[in-house]
Each structure stands twice: as structure tokens, then as C-alpha cells.
Amino acid sequence: xNRVVEAIxxxxxxxxxVVAFIGIGGGILGNFIGARIQLRxxxxxxxxxxxxxxxxxxxxxxxALRDDRRREIAHFVQKARETVxxxxxxxxxxxxxxxxxxxxxxxxxxxxxxxxxxELIAPADLVALAHQVVTAVEKRMDLADDRAPAxxxxxxxxxxxxxxxxxxxxxxxLRALDDARVANLARDKNGYVAFRSAARTALEELPHMCDxxxxxxxxxxxxxxxxxxxxxxxxxxxxxxxxxxxAARRLxxxxxxxx
Length: 259
What we know:
- This protein has helices at residues 2-10, 12-89, 97-121, 124-158, 167-185, 189-203, 211-220, 226-252, 254-258.
- By secondary structure, it is an all-alpha fold.
- Helix 2 (12-89) packs antiparallel against helix 3 (97-121).
- The model has no long low-confidence stretch (mean pLDDT 82).
């Protein structure tokens, strides 16, 4: 190797050719290395751009999903409250009863549709909480459908003016009806029969009442006190709605937005 080097050094023409070759080879190698670096850099930039696009698309998808969930949950809660509100009108409004019942059914159908939409877009735990809300709403609907007719007649008795000649009989009927209910719950058969008979006598002194209305009031004494049951169901629904709203706020990170 040393002899070759010495020979090259002693021959200027050969030395010049070798130097030129090394220069050309180095240039080619440098160009090759530079091209490889540029290629890798281009690939890295392309990969980074794809990653950025993928991250952006995922962020947009999550934002859209969050907006959809917020909207559907809000609509579901609104429809649950609306359905109950329609059911509550059955206790108060005697006119156009069929129209009010139709409104309750329509609202309930819309609530069921909103529940189905939540089942497609919400997490399983939120779907379960929505089911509890629907169950609570349906219990209030069933109670109103069952007990509202008698309650409306009772409201009419309670609304009889003090100066009316029928006021005394109305009050006696109301007291006897309440006593009959208490006796029935206490399984006091004799007491129940006596109070029911007293209620019937007082109701017959009210000429504006028909036989069907009297029968509604008397048969209602077999049931639990309506106003206590309504209060319990209202509390159950409020609890179910509260749990749903709390879970929804946690899912939507509403607390973070408040900060």
C-alpha cells in the first residue's frame, strides 16, 4: 500500500488523475447523501402532515359528537318535562279531556324517539340513566290516567263557595271520603263501610253531581292518598333527572367550561 502511495506521489499525472477521481466520487457521494437526506426530510414532512390532518379530523369528530350529545340530551330532558306537564293537566282540566290525553300520548311518543336517539349516541351509563327517567315519567302518566278523573271531581267539591248551600254537604263528603280511605288502609272493614256510607249520603245531597262522578269518588277510597303518591313520584323523577343531568355535565365537561 505504501509503495502504491509513493508511486502515485512520484508520478504527477497519476496523482492528478487520482485527485480528480476522488473529487468526482466525493461529489457524487455528497449528492447521493444530500438526496437521501432530502428524501427522508420530505417523508418526515409528509408523515407530520398526515398526523396533523388525522389529529385535526379526530378533534373535529369529537367536537361534532359532543355537540350532538349536548343537543340530544337537552331535547330528551325537555321532552321528559313536557310529557309530565301534559300529564299533570289531566288533574286540572276537565274540558276537552280527549285532547289532553292525545297531547300526553304524542309527547310520550316523542320522548321515546329521543330516548332511541340517545341510545345511538350516548355512553351506556347515560342510556341507563335515561331509561330511569322514562320509567319515572311513565309512572306519572299512568297515575294521572288512572286517578285524574276522580281528582277532578274532588276539586269541584273543594271549590264550592262557603256561602253556597251545598258547601256543608261538600265538606262532609270530603271528610267522609278521607276517613274511608284511612280506614281502608288500616284494614278497618267496619269503619270503612260506615265512612263510605256517610260519604255516599253527603254526595247524594249535591244535585250537580251525577252517579258516575259519585262512583268515581267512592271507588277512589280504595287507593292510596293521591297527593302523597304524586309527591313521591315527583321526587323520584327529580332524582332521576338530576342524576342524568349530572352525568351529562360530566360527559360534556361542562364544569371545565365554567372555569
